[in-house]
From TrEMBL:
Residues of the Glycoside hydrolase family 31 TIM barrel domain: 23-273
Official protein name in the record: Sulfoquinovosidase
Molecular function terms, GO-annotated: hydrolase activity, hydrolyzing O-glycosyl compounds
Keyword Ubl conjugation: no
Presence of keyword Hydrolase: yes
Record family assignment: Belongs to the glycosyl hydrolase 31 family.
EC number: 3.2.1.199
Segments passing through the bilayer: none
Amino acid sequence: NAGVKVNGIWAQDWSGIRMTSFGKRVMWNWKWNSENYPQLDSRIKQWNKEGVQFLAYINPYVASDKDLCEEAAKRGYLAKDVAGGDYLVEFGEFYGGVVDLTNPEAYAWFKEVIKKNMIELGCGGWMADFGEYLPTDTYLHNGISAEIMHNAWPALWAKCNYEALEETGKLGEILFFMRAGSTGSQKYSTMMWAGDQNVDWSLDDGLASVVPAALSLAMTGHGLHHSDIGGYTTLFEMKRSKELLLRWCDFSAFTPMMRTHEGNRPGDNWQFDG
């Protein structure tokens, strides 16, 4: 009604929702959840006709209680623990397997997950989350210490996404954005975002922290950046106010992307429809 053009609709929970004491989490099983989003495939086609892209979410882990993790485990595609079993990371009331991106077969398999379940669905972009959570005591296919591989992991994760676009002819057409980076990720990351800010004004992890984050990204060669409008993390009595949301919008108008986030506890935060 205000005449503002909408370029994209971002549904972080396109693959499902997991409710935890921390709040609303994404189901880490990277395929369209038709119960939450019925007829999403046809909706995406309609949105595309109207010049609107659909954006999704993915990270390099798979929830241990879901079928993608089961498939990865059977194929031997997960990083290992000291006993040779699959290394499962506790992510807050659920566990996730680490897809071993140093294993060429696992790397190719995960690219196919991106191609089939996201690109073929019609996604015009996605948040390629995490990348910094490689456990340093896990064992990888390439035999290199996880302590050594830890800082290389974000670049490897970025490369996986980049190549999925490149191999499908979608490079330059589809946008993915990341929060983790290291030397070499500049070549592959198409955009960065500032991470999971608190829903407050603070310099340490609120709205004020986004400015030095943007400057740091620019100085390391990541010129395209943005942030979660309104912040993400609600803890304790912290709640997003209307004023914070609007001022964050003001700031984001001067960044390459304006993207809102409902936060981990949407009911506690001021939303546009609040």
